[in-house]
Amino acid sequence: MFDSLKRFLAAFAVITFFTLSLPVRASLGTNFSDQWWNPAESGWGAAILQQYDTLFVDVFVYGPDGRPTWYTAAAYYQGLASVRRIGMLPETRRYVANVMALRARFGG
What is the pLDDT of residues 86-97, one digit of tens each? Predict the structure, then answer.
């Protein structure tokens, strides 16, 4: 169960990294809201809720003791038009610095 969750989280991180690093404009026509789970692996799942340019991510798991645990995060996408208009927000500046550090570390 936890190996599948680790694989899912790794895949999700890679997809999120490449999706959010693309120079695209947030659109009301594209909505990434969805839920993921595997009925054969009860005890975990994930959900994404998108509102405009903000993603809310929930990952839920049940520990070995049967207690539910929720992990949540919010991700904001600042598009190129916004950067050109008002400059980078502090969160965007940190994100770009992290991406550049990862690219330098792992190549890319």
Answer: 888 888 888 889
Three-state DSSP state, 62: strand
User: Domain containing 72: what range?
Assistant: 2-77
pLDDT digit string (tens) for 5-24? 666 665 565 566 555 555 55
CA distances from 81 to 48, 77, 98 (A): 25, 11, 21
34 within 8 A of 17, measured Cβ to Cβ: no
Region class of 13: left (phi > 0), else alpha (psi between -120 and 50), else beta: alpha
Domains identified in the chain, total number: 2
Shared domain for 49 and 88, answered yes or no, is: no
Same domain, 67 and 17: yes
Both 7 and 40 in one domain: the answer is yes
pTM of the predicted model over 0.85: no
